[in-house]
Amino acid sequence: MGVMLLFEKTPYASVETVGDFYSRAMLHWLNKNVCLVDAAVDVELHKGHIHHLVNDLNRLTTENRDQIFPLSWGENEEDYWKYVAEVKTWAEKILKEFDFSSNKLSFSASW
């Protein structure tokens, strides 16, 4: 089963240009599982993947924030952290609001 998600197109650095581990892992997960496009996309979400994403985002925003800002974002650090916070909010919302009684689920959402 797939998940129907609707996103606004969001600019973000490519995996190849992000210099820190957590951003690279986060963007790899997003590129693989949740294409950020301006149309609805069918994707499969696994609860474990989202838990890992939230855990990485928690570490990214609390433990290492001053050390891992990726150079590829240039002077635009404020936008980078805003983007990270939005992804974290989205992932936490999915974990909170949807039933993962099976490993996969279907829903329609627009945030």
Automatic annotation (TrEMBL):
Which domain of life, per UniProt?
Bacteria
Q: What is this protein called?
A: Uncharacterized protein
